[in-house]
Design brief:
single chain; about 260 residues; alpha+beta; Alpha-Beta Plaits; 2 domains; five-stranded mixed beta sheet
Amino acid sequence: MDLGAYWQENKRFVVIVGTGALVFLIGFAVEKSLFQGKINAAQRAIQLSKNQLKELKFSTTDQQEAETENVALRASVEKLTAAAHFKPRPEFVPDPAAGSSANHYLRTLSRVREDLLQRANRASLKVESSLGMPELSPTVEREILRYLEALHLVETVSALAIRARADSIDKIQVVLDPGHGARGGVGPIERTKVKMTLSGSSLELTRILVWTQRPGPGGRVLPIDQLEMSGAKGRPGQVRLDVTFLLARVKELQPVTEKG
């Protein structure tokens, strides 16, 4: 190849390419001189942090203190969980050896309804006859257990209303946790709500509320989610109480597993 002839024919192109390459090299050198110090400083800081992490160690005492604190925290959580978790009496819990849960639900509902309505009639207390239970008996095991728990609460509050000599329990509604049908599930706490509307004097209804929060021996506090008391329309001296009780199921703590 004749370089002289090539130069004569492509002089302009060669000059442009050479100039561009020279500008690039000059720019690279300038950029390196401006930022190399910062790059080096950042690299030194990264290396220093790595060295400090390698040297960071915990003593046996630190580990023992952490383990002791963890045990105490887990004990507190378990205690609070037990206090929040609603535990029905044995007669409201199906026994697999005695037959299906569905049959147990029907027997229990029949017994509670007959006994409670009789006691209410003797005390002149009007009680919503369905007791908040669904028209069609539940067939899913989970729902059966929740409705039995709700039935236990309804019986408990109704007994307190009889004791307080209230006028009526006009409405009872059981609402299962909507998380059962949701994609995310019920979460760490499952909430079954029992909504009740009671009527009577302010003293009678106040007594019921107090007794639900300060139960006698062997009783349990009934958590209240919502509460509203107002004058009963058309009934001078009478008060209406709209109260929502909460039946909670708290997921148990998972055991801690040591990582190798």
